[in-house]
Amino acid sequence: MKHQARAIVIGGSLAGLWTARVLADHFEQVTVLERDELPTGVTSRAGVPQDKHVHVLLERGAQIMLQLFPGIGQELVAAGANRIDLTENARAKIRGQWLPQFQSNIITYACSRLLLESILRKRVAALPNVELCGGAQVQGLVTNKGTVEGVRVRWKDGRDDGVETAAFIVDASGRSSKLPDWLRDIGYDAPEETVIDVKLGYAGRRYKIPTPAPSWDTMLIGVEPPHQSRAGLIYSEENGIWMVMLAGILADYPPTDEAGFLAFAKDMEPEFHAAIQNAEPVSNIIGYRRTENRMRHYEKLNRWPDGLVALGDAVCGFNPVYGQGMTVSAMAAAELGEMLSKSNGRLTGVAQSFQKKYPKIVEPAWLLATSADLEWLGNEEATSLPERFAGWYMPKVLDAIPNEQIVHKTFVQVQNLIAPSTALFAPKIAWRVMRHSLRSKPVQPLA
Ligand SMILES: Cc1cc2nc3c(=O)[nH]c(=O)nc-3n(C[C@H](O)[C@H](O)[C@H](O)COP(=O)(O)OP(=O)(O)OC[C@H]3O[C@@H](n4cnc5c(N)ncnc54)[C@H](O)[C@@H]3O)c2cc1C
Predict the structure, then answer these.
(1) Protein residues with CB under 6 Å of any ligand 1 atom
(2) Per-residue pLDDT tens for 87-102?
(3) Distance 432 CA to ligand 1 centre (A)
(4) Are residues 207 and 273 in the same domain?
(5) Same domain, 188 and 312
(6) Quick one: which of 63, 78, 125, 175 is 20 to 30 A from 196 by CA?
(7) Taking the model in full, what pTM does it have?
């Protein structure tokens, strides 16, 4: 049953687009308010500074996307995306060892973030009850007796500032969300935050894929704690382009000048460097450093206005090196859709129940990202028992991956959020992990 009402989504990036698509099944009208002017083509936007960097859509995200937008897989491929198997078509080195390549049917549509967002935006804009409004900067909430009734909007086209009313409002405005301030303005508390920051920096550059092209579509070099803090990814995008990403942990930021970029790659892995050294660059090198894991604990607030929901990076942003943010925001939007389906047309309480459930939705991704980062920071920075345990166990899983294919396959399923993290604790996995750990010599940190 559709709610006879309007819903507003703040932010027209990935979380906002997934959410608008889901809400279109439940509301008469859905309005997306985005502060940037919305491009019609494959164009970068100031409001999404990360959109020029490599973006991998995990298998779970791809599955939700295909359900929400039938036929979009073919549309992406027709636009140049590469449908790749993430273990068969990837040459990967983890913990200093090259991994065997095998077919797993864990699939992604490899393309630029710009292409993905532009196709999703076109699909959402074509929905008859969705309106995408660019140049609309939301500045606060309007409430009445504990229920949100609208948002205050500044229009960039010179229209007078005003209020847009709605019965349901979703904040999908990303890491720079002002929701904590907006809540304070209307007499509510701001949330506590958990931050786990491994001080990772990115540098990315696009190259033409050389001919003949290598046998793999993507090359991944992982970090090796405690001494190798550098990682890299070569990723095939549309139009015969490689996106080459370098990353360094603990402020070992990759340089953005040509010589420094190549030297960093060579120091990380000579084979990676050899793949790019004679390839033709087609872009500048761009850096990025706002990469901390950050969770805003809206679920802990005792008072929460009815009709208000927050999701995506606005609630929980991840260290991007694990490629989770787009997929987790799709999972959150899908969960919101399920809760609305079960609400039988009654909105009361849906928003607060969703917000209380949010930590459960993000937990598998949060544990993976933070346990890997805590290996660098020290497990004493863990804020909960599951985090501490994952911080102790996950490095042992990663160490076992190159030698134990079943551990490898299960890890890739968990990493792609298509298997629960408990799959890594199943007896057949746990005993292999522990056997490998007991057989290996402990690695000594460099002095
Ligand atoms: C360098 C980097 C690499 C990444 N790589 C990956 C990856 O490989 N895989 C992956 O899944 N994820 C990746 N991510 C994460 C991914 O970019 C985000 O998780 C994803 O974009 C979803 O974020 P979002 O929509 O919640 O927020 P954002 O993408 O930040 O979008 C927020 C939107 O809200 C708008 N907005 C903000 N304030 C207002 C306002 N007041 N009024 C109106 N509009 C507003 C902004 O203009 C923007 O359009 C990466 C992130 C970074 C930084």
Answers:
(1) 10-16, 33-36, 47-48, 50, 53-56, 137-138, 172-176, 202, 288, 312-314, 320, 323-327, 329
(2) 999 999 998 999 999 9
(3) 38
(4) yes
(5) yes
(6) 63
(7) 0.95
